[in-house]
Amino acid sequence: MNRIFYILSSVIILSTSISYSQEAAIWKKFTGEITDPKIPTLFDYSYAGYKLGSEGIPDQFANLKTFNIVDFGAIPNDAISDQVAIQSAIDAAEKNKGGIVYFPKGEFLVNVKPDKTNPIVIKSSNIILKGSGMGKNGTVVNMVDHMLQRTPDEAEWKVSYMFTFISPKGENAKTAIAKSVNEGDFTIEVADGSLFKNTKYVQLEMPYNLIAAKEALKGKEPRPHWERLLEKGVMYIENHEIKSISGNTITLQDPVINTIKTEYNWIAKPFYPLENVGVEDIFFKANFNDAFVHHKDFLHDNAWSMISMQRVANSWVRRCKFSNMTGAVSLSNSYASSILMLLIEGNAGHKLTNVAESSRILTGLITDNTTSGQFHGAAMSHRTSGSVIWRVKTPKQGWDSHAEIPKNNLVDRYEASKMTNHGGFHGNEPHHLEGLTLWNYKRVGTPELNYDFWKLSGRGMYWGFSVVNPIIVGLHGSNTTFNEVNLGYLESLGKAVLPESLYEAQLKFRLKKTPKWVTSSLREWEKMEKQ
After folding, report:
1. Highest-confidence range of 2-11, 164-173, 183-192, by mean pLDDT?
2. Hey, is 481 helix, strand or coil?
3. Are 505 and 388 contacting, i.e. CB atoms less than 8 angstroms apart?
4. Are β-strands 267-271 and 175-176 bridged in parallel, bridged antiparallel, or unpaired?
5. Are 474 and 468 a contacting pair, CB within 8 Å?
6. Does residue 5 register a pLDDT over 50?
7. Could you tell me where the DSSP H helices lie in 176-328?
8. Is the pLDDT at 4 greater than 60, yes or no?
9. What is the pLDDT of residue 17?
10. CA–CA separation, 267 vs 237, rounded Å?
11. 32 DSSP assignment
12. Whether 239 contacts 335, CB under 8 Å
């Protein structure tokens, strides 16, 4: 990648208020105002989120019947478990082919003295868990005890979340992609289009490939202990909604994220996620009270975690509060969904939010007020692509990428004490391939000098964050400098740029106007943060 550096000053002064520099040159390149070949072209991140960012999450669901958990035996504010009643209400809504599972005001208890792992499971589309508000006099769901391991040797990070959304139908049938496709194209040609008759979604996959891995590193030398990359290469996965099919030609609702080369044996598979599932307006209270120790055991890693969504599309978690938990929300193998407006408080634990093996996910408007900060902040990892972390505050920690080669993701208006608090097994690194952009990142911690995104030496097997040619624009706050050799592009170090939010600006540029859900969410979030 060509490199050009627009560095305003090598000395950065921490300020309590944000002052903005001029409009970023790289933004002008994206809009076509300038054509400087030395400036890279930004990836279009604007398709992240529910309905690809073009629509807001509905406020009303008139077509869905309401199933009040009280009608199924739940009793607020007593000492008896309400879990059976909650699951029964969900089961009834699923039998009805959809419904709002309503939690009235008061506190409801789940996972009381379990003798086995027993998550509340949602496995149908159009199921919404809706409370009466996350604030005072709202709905509280109290996870009394921790989740249990399925077997004594179950990996600590695999322990179930309390509420688990999962599509029961996996991706089995497959067909080859017949023609090469450029990043940004909207159509693909497959060998057998009949596989997608009456199918709404498609999953595109490139199996592990060593040649593609060499290309992905852009000439950078791999670390010697990156076992998976060195032995197998890289693989890519991206999910899409189908707009139309004509013979073997599939037109997509959103553009292809990766350049697809037929010689790399790309395949297409029908994809069957849950649709229109959500969680909103609930205060989730757990009881993790230990001083957190990273990877100490399953209790510290995952046993007090709340909401997991696996294989979902056009779905969401919004307007919720979490306290004393190891993990708030996890999305995996999902598409075009949003995690929005979350407040995290109480004793700090392992994870904030995590997005893995997913495409076009928006994680935004989140504040971590826990004691020492969730050890890992908002995260995108494990082949996640085309996704955005937007206006998140983790003032005691940093954002996270848990390795396994995510690509083309944006961290937008993030506020943190660290550059990252990255994780992931060393054998699965690097942490991120090309296309990572940090836009108007604000650091509030101690100075970070000569930060290196591609160290080739260190103690043990963990040598620091590893990213292929990141783009950093408008990073400000605490004194921060970089090893510029391992940057793809650097502009306005020490002073924020315009546009203030790249995600919002790209969304407006694509849709020709700012969608109403953005402005209304920002107004609502400002009120929520004051609660």
Report:
1. 183-192
2. strand
3. no
4. antiparallel
5. no
6. no
7. 210-216, 227-231, 298-301
8. no
9. 52
10. 10
11. T
12. yes
Per the listing, tokens 């944000």 go with 18
Q: Quick one: tokens of 357? A: 């093996």
Task: Report the pLDDT value the prediction gives residue 10, as an integer from 0 to 100.
Answer: 32
CA–CA gap between residue 11 and residue 298 (Å, rounded): 44
Looking at every residue in the chain, the average pLDDT score rounds to: 94
21 confidence band (pLDDT: 50, 70, 90): confident
Tokens representing 375 are: 């050890």
* Tokens, residue 497: 């740029």
Instruction: DSSP letter for 31, please.
Output: H
Complete edge-to-edge strand list for the sheet that includes strand 353-356: 120-122, 163-166, 305-310, 327-332, 353-356, 379-381
Both tokens of 209, joined, read 């490939």
DSSP letter (8 states) at residue 55: S
Question: Kind and range of the H or E element at 29?
Answer: helix 25-31
For residue 430, cis peptide bond before it (omega within 30 degrees of 0): yes
Please list the alpha-helical segments (H only) found in 123-226: 210-216
Note whether 392 and 363 are within 8 A (CB): yes
Question: How far is it, in rounded angstroms, from Cα 72 to Cα 82?
Answer: 9
In the DSSP assignment, the letter for residue 181 is: B
Residue 3 has pLDDT above 60, yes or no: no
Which token pair is 336?
A: 């075009």
Alpha carbon 10 to its chain centroid, in Å, reads 33
Classify residue 509 as exposed, middle or buried by CB count within 10 Å of its CB (0-12, 13-18, 19+): middle
Half-sphere exposure of 115 (CA within 13 A, CB side): 0
What is d(CA 58, CA 338) in angstroms, rounded to the nearest whole number? 12
- Closest by CA to 219, choosing from 383, 406, 1, is 1
Structure letter (DSSP) for residue 231:
H
At 362, which amino acid appears? L
Question: pTM higher than 0.70, yes or no?
Answer: yes
Give the C-alpha separation, 358 to 55, whole Å: 19
- Phi, then psi, of 32 in degrees rounded to 5: 90, 5
Give yes or no for a contact between 304 and 324, defined as CB atoms under 8 angstroms apart: yes
Distance CA 421, CA 300 (A): 17
Average pLDDT over residues 33-44: 96
pLDDT in tens, 272-283: 999 999 999 999
- Please give the structure tokens belonging to residue 445: 């911690």
Neighbours of 427 (CB within 10 A): 14
Residue 131: how many CB atoms within 10 A of its CB?
24
Q: Which of 20-29, 45-54, 74-83, 238-247 has the lowest mean pLDDT?
A: 20-29
Ordered by where they begin, the domains of the chain are 50-168+275-397+501-529 (2.160.20.10), 175-271 (no CATH)
For residue 193, which amino acid is it?
G
Residue 455 exposed, middle or buried by CB count within 10 Å (0-12, 13-18, 19+): middle
**Which residues have a Cβ under 8 Å from the Cβ of 376 and sit 6 or more positions away?**
350, 351, 352, 354, 397, 400, 402, 421, 422, 423
